[in-house]
Amino acid sequence: MLTLYVKTGCPFCRIVLQAGEELGVSFEEKNIASDAIATELIARGGKRQVPYLVDGERGIEMYESKEIVAYLHANYQKS
Length: 79
What we know:
The relative contact order is 0.24. The chain is an alpha+beta fold. Helices cover 44% and strands 22% of the residues. The chain has three helices and four strands. The protein has one domain (2-75): Glutaredoxin, CATH 3.40.30. The mean pLDDT is 96. Strands 2-1-3-4 form a four-stranded mixed beta sheet, with helices on both faces. Strand 3 (52-55) and strand 4 (60-63) form a beta hairpin.
């Protein structure tokens, strides 16, 4: 399961979500507009920065939209 921490109106989050749509990848979206979710994000990654991807199956967690998109393309290509 892929989890993506996002913020409403974030253009970088939109880039990652669009890449996911193109690849047929779905995310559990967690919006940091909620204080509880923001606190959860900081506990995981150390910063209140989005987008933040968590790939629980592969043990991968990362910030930065360009890196996340590259990771998705490398690991979740459509068959």
